[in-house]
Amino acid sequence: MRAFLRLAYLALLLTGCESRQPAGTVAKKTVTSPVATPKTVVSARIPTTTIFGKIYAGGTWIEPADSSHGPPVQLAGQTWRVYTTAHPDSTRPLTLYAPSGRSQRLPAISEVGVDVRYTFELRDAHGRPRFTRTLRKADFAGQVYEELRTVAGASPPVFLRYWPARGALCFEVNFGRPETDEGLIVLVLLDARTGKLLHLASEKAFMNDCDCWPTLTADGQTLLVGKELLHANGRVTTLVRPNKSIAATRLVNDSTFLVVYEGTGPNESAGLANALLVNQKGQALGRFTFHGTGLSQSGGGFSLTSRFLPATQTSYLFDEVSSTFTLLPTARPLALRQLTARQLVPARPPRRPTEVALTFEPDYGPSATLYVDTLTQQVRGTVHEMVH
After folding, report:
1. pLDDT tens-digit profile of 279-289?
2. Domain residues of the chain, as ranges?
3. Of 13, 80, 223, 262, which one has the greatest count of Cβ atoms within 10 A?
4. What architecture does CATH give domain 62-210?
5. Nearest Cα to 285, choosing from 336, 241, 244?
């Protein structure tokens, strides 16, 4: 069952997450809509982005290592190997009762399952363990709702990588309802020396959730995961805001993060500046309007249509709702520019020698092509009307 869920999850990555792919491939839904450029400009070192578990390597997404085969990790110059297992424990059955069930003579059972032993082990070259850490389903109560914890099968934790600045080993644990697409992914941080549990963070649901992927800053000090910023000193910054649903998050540079919110309150306005550029403390540095994060046709959740061009060190975001492009420079994100389709010089082949073509194909709405001159950074573009 774990293999099935992993394949389904991987399929979602391939269909709904192109925004993390290099220039040359299409990315999913993105940000757009103008707002006044703030007076100050944030400058930061341009990062080489590493995405936990889905590592950006020359345009290829590398899946996490199979922990059952002991992937190696270097700690203080010594090679260790990581092993994980998940064993169902039939001696510890789990039963979830319907809300009124406990007061009845014959309780109404809502869900049934068994507990699971999740084991994390670090061994030296001779197979001697440095530590063995065991977690149970109950340890994930703060991240996984009770119905899903009760019925979830035994899915072995997947080793992602070592986070040197935090001294932590990073893992993913999947909680999935058997024979369905319902499930959650939880990030687990363990102390690399002792195996002590440092942090649990809910990454996202299998389906119908934010376009959010664990990403480490280039300086290794901050991990963007799900709806949180995890800092090497142990501090946690939440990105959650009242009456807001996080539609997408992205690392911009070492000190700036993009968070796109979609409102759930009754007073939401289509013109609200809902895309925020935030700092390490989660404080807004600048904002602009963007409402192009509709649910993907695959059911994979929100999807951001964006492309990153290394030659210009700029992210290009397309809002298919308003047919607007946002140009977000990595080093100076508050100097962003926004261009509507009417403001663009039409892009008609042939391309100029210094131009790169970026194609945007959202799940809903019109597609678009943007031609970027890598020398002058001037852009030409065309929004392709939908054919019914």
Report:
1. 999 999 999 99
2. 62-210
3. 223
4. Beta Barrel (2.40)
5. 336
